[in-house]
Design a protein that fits this description.
Layout: H1 10-26, E1 31-36, E2 41-46, H2 53-73, E3 81-85, E4 90-96, E5 100-106, H3 112-142, H4 156-163
Antiparallel strand pairs: 1-2, 1-5, 3-4, 4-5
Helix pairs in contact: 1-3
Length: about 160
């Protein structure tokens, strides 16, 4: 059975944002992103001015997908943690359940050990929120009150007429 799309309510978004902000502070990170596996940014904290968040989110999701392929090639289910070390900055990428990806960008003001410790704690909290959101989505789907896109009835012909093709 396919997983239902998740729709966050304001309360859940704020909780995810708060956890992300706390993680950035506790891990002495420059930036923390919470991304879904489709490459959409969910929450972010830290110094975001010099970062193309859209590209970072989509490239991270692609990186995780490629690494999942590598894991399967050697008989692993997945690699739940990725680490990239640079000259100045490092990336710590961690999978949260089956829905989320935590990306931590940190420099010499932090350490891999501290980041791993703080991400582990934050991941448990993030997973609880994702579980609640997924349970509500499953319940709404079962009750027949699932969200229906306003675009679901638009056909290719409608688009062609709209744009004059």
């Amino acid at each position: 059975m396919a997983k239902p799309d998740l729709m966050l309510f304001e309360e859940e978004y704020r909780a995810l944002q708060e956890i992300t902000g706390r993680l950035a502070k506790d891990a002495s990170a420059k930036v923390v992103f919470l991304v879904d596996k489709n490459g959409q940014q969910i929450a972010a904290a830290g110094d975001l001015q010099d970062i193309d968040a859209t590209s970072l989110a989509s490239l991270t999701a692609g990186n995780v997908a490629a690494t999942d392929g590598l894991a399967r090639l050697i008989g692993e289910k997945e690699f739940s943690l990725l680490f990239h070390e640079g000259e100045k900055d490092n990336l710590h990428i961690s999978i949260v359940g089956k829905r989320g990806i935590v990306v931590v960008i940190f420099d010499q003001n932090s350490s891999l050990a501290l980041v791993r410790l703080r991400v582990r704690k934050a991941s448990r909290e993030l997973q609880e929120i994702f579980d609640r959101v997924e349970a509500r989505a499953l319940q709404e789907t079962a009750a027949g009150s699932g969200f229906e896109s306003p675009f679901c009835e638009i056909t290719d012909e409608d688009i062609d007429r709209l744009f004059g093709d």
